[in-house]
Amino acid sequence: MNEIIVNETAVTLIPSEDIVSNKACALSQDISKVIDNYAQVIIDMRFVTLIDSTGIGLIISAQNKLHKRDAKLKLTNVSDDILTMFKIMRLDKHLYVN
Amino acid sequence: MNYPTKFTVLIIDDKITNLLVLGRTLENAGYEVIKATSGAEGRELAAQYKPELILLDIMMPEEDGFETIQKLKLNPLTNSIPVIFLTAMDDVDAKLRGFELGAVDFIIKPFHPAEVKVRVKLHIKLNIATNALINTQREKLKQIETAQLSLMVQPHELPEAKFAKYYLALEEAGGDFYDVFHIADLTYGYFLGDVSGHDIATSFITASVKALLKQNCQPIYDPCESMRMVNEVLMDVLPHGKYLTATYLNLNRRENIARLVCMGHPPVVYHPVGGSPQIIEARGDILGVFHDVLYTEERVNVTPGDRFYMYSDGLIENGSVWSANINRLLEVISSFEHGSLDKVVEHLNQGLFPEGTMPEDDVVIVAVEV
Description:
The complex is a heterodimer of chains A (98) and B (370). With 98 residues, chain A is of the alpha/beta class.
C-alpha cells in the first residue's frame, strides 16, 4: 500500500515496496491519479531497495508527462546503489534525484 | 492437441457413501473415477494421475478441503486442475473463501446426480477450452522467440568477429538482445541491448533496432554519432514508457583500438592479456526517451588476446540493483583461466549462478576477443 501525502502544490508518494514489474501496478495507478493535478510530484524512495526496467520506465513516463506541462518530478531518499545506477544512466540529468 | 477419450475425475471425500454415490454417477456418465478418503491421499493421486477435474469435500478430519486446495495450487503438477468443492455448507463466506483459494464451483450436499453430471461436464469443457487457448498463445509466443533468436547472429556465422555468447530469455518475448556486424575491413560492431519490460512489443523493437544499427553504424560515423542517430529514430518509434539501455563496442583490429559507448547500461569489463579485469567507466543516456542526449566514447588501446565482456543487467541483478554487484562480476572473471571464449562465457554464467540458483531476469553475455 503506497502512502500519499498531499499539500496545495505538491503530492508525495511513498511506495511501500520495491518498484519492480510484478509490484509496480499500484504505484502506476497512484501516479495516474495525481499526475495531472500538482505542480510537483515527489516519489519518496525510502522503502525502495530495488527498481527494475519496468519501474524505471514508469518513472520516465511520469517525468515526460509532467515535463509537458512544466510540472516537476522529484525522487527523494534514493539509496546509494540506485543513485549510482541512475547516474550511469544519466537519469540524474533529466529528473531531480537526491 | 490430442485429448483423452475418457476423462478422469478424482473424488476426495472422507465419507465412503459419498465416494460410492458420486463414483457410480460419474462412471455411468462415462468418466474414469479415482477415489481418495483424505486430502493427503487425494493430493498424491492428483499429482500421479493428473485428472481433468477434482471433486473435493470441505469438511474432512485432519486436512480440510481448504487446506487441500491450497496445497494443490502450490504444486506445479496439480495447480491447473479445476477443483469443485463438495459441501453441506451453503454460507456465502465459505463459498467466497473457496473461490479465493481457486475453486471453480460448488456442489451443495445432498447431491443430485443430474446436477453433478452437468457441472462436471461444464468445467471439463471450460478447462479444455482454456488449455487450448493457452497452448495457442504459447505457440504464437514460441514463434516470436524463434524469430527473435533467428535475428541474432551466431558466432559461427561471423567467425572473424571472434565472439561467444550466452542467451537466456526467461519468457518467450525477452527484452535482451545482441547484434554483431561488419563495419569495415577488420572492424566490427558489437551491440548488446535491453528493452524495458517483457511483452510482445519488446520483441518487435529488437528487430527495429537491428535494422537501425545496420543503417547507422557506418565507417563514416563515429560510434557516438551512430548512437545519437539511433536514439533520434527510437524516440519516434518506441511506445510510451519504453526505453533501451545498451552498450556498443566498435573494435578495429587493424589499428588495435576499441571504442565503447554506454547508453545507461551496466559497464563493459575489459580483461587485458596478463592483466586484471577492469570496468570501463562510461555514462550515457538511455535510448529512445530524451532528445538532448550525451554519449561519450571510451577508447582503449588493445592487444590481440584482450577480451571484452558485455552483458545484460540480469547477470548481476540477483535481488539488488546491478550497480551493487559489479565487483562480484570482476571477482568471477578474475577467478577463471584464460580458456576458450565459449568456456569463459559458460564459466561466467556458472560463476554468478551456481547450481540451484536461477537468474530473475533475461541474461545475455557477449564475450569478444581482440
